[in-house]
Amino acid sequence: MPGRSDRPSWTTYFMDITSLVAKRSTCLRRSVGAMIVKDKRILATGYNGAPTKIRHCIEIGCLREKLNVPSGEKHELCRGIHAEQNAIIQAAFHGVSINGATLYCTNLPCSICTKMIINAGLKRIYYQDGYADTLSEGMLKEVGIEVIQFDGSKQGEKP
Asked: Rounded to an integer, what distance in angstroms lies between the CA atom of residue 10 and that of residue 44?
């Protein structure tokens, strides 16, 4: 059926999968998913949660909640690894180069993840929702990583 209008664009396709990845999150505050893609191929995925063999917050509770730590602050007071970090770590663990790839993420990365993204050589970020960390936005702009908020449209796509 040529010209099917219900076929998702590449960006929509990858963002939909990223939203599905976020459902694996074990964070009590925010479910985040991330996916690294190059040449229309999924290289790695990640969601936020505790490291392997460490009990998750869904099992023992959230330290950040107990201490009333606002979103975007004091990242070190968390058992979890961010989704973007997990995706980068998975690529490294399996020996997959992500240099020049695109990150799809349900949220704009924080400043810690942004530093990893920069040094990993990622070139573009698609995200759905913002995040309370203005430092990350400034760093991404400074190094020229293209940042695109996904709104579901097919315009300006560069998978």
From this structure: 16
Which pLDDT score, from 0 to 100, does residue 132 have?
Answer: 67
Catalytic residue among 59, 76, 84, 157: 84
If you write DSSP's letter for every residue of 75-113 in order, what string do you get? TTS-S-B-HHHHHHHHHHHTT---TT-EEEEEE---HHH
59 a catalytic residue: no
* Better-predicted residue by pLDDT, 15 or 151: 15
**Beta 102-107 vs 146-149: how paired, if at all?**
unpaired
Q: Is 80 exceeded by the pLDDT of residue 5?
A: no
CB-based contact 127:106 (threshold 8 Å): yes
* pTM given for the model: 0.88
Q: What does the alpha-carbon distance between residue 6 and residue 8 come to, in Å, rounded to a whole number?
A: 6
Coil vs helix vs strand at 12: helix
Write the pLDDT tens digit of every residue in 60-98: 988 888 888 887 778 788 888 999 999 999 999 999 999
Sign of CA dihedral 128, 22, 86, 41: negative
